[in-house]
Amino acid sequence: MLLELFLTLGALCSVLTVFLNATLVTSIFDIWIPLVLWLGYSIGFFVLYGLLFVLLSVFVDKSKPQERPNHFYLAVFVETIALYFRLARIEIRVRGKEKVPANSNFLLVSNHLSDHDFMSMLTVLRGRSIAFVSKPENFDKPIVGKYLHKGGFLPINGFNSAGFYVEDCRR
Questions:
Q1: What is the CA radius of gyration of the chain?
Q2: Which H or E run includes 147?
Q3: What is the pLDDT of residues 25-44, one digit of tens each?
Q4: Crossing angle for the helix pair 71-87 and 2-20, nearest 10 degrees?
């Protein structure tokens, strides 16, 4: 969604620039100018979004407990992950999504195939109320840790002998 938005906005800005400045394209050989403008505007929108992504993380106070997920921060995080997958040309194939309840609570347990498992599940199940667990070290990462905190992720140490800490599960 973001990829198409940035490319469309880049195209609109380049057409508008050429339309408002009629001296830019004076012959058929100047056709490359709108293409370069489109590329520049599109890259500019990507850079602005990246700066906004970082800037939003500055306002997160991780010392305050997060009782409920902040849907705005979670949506920004999920759309950024989806954009990353699109740009990296990562295709996610899903089987059995219809078995996941849409309007009720559920526990989703999966085997880890990679470090990107939670990101792929986030993008596939976007729009649903879902909570993820993560190891506490991930919350110490500069920008991602703040989005994990605001998105309602739960820091759970999975390496203790009892499986999970009771205090962590109660959160």
A1: 21
A2: helix 144-150
A3: 777 777 788 889 999 999 99
A4: 80
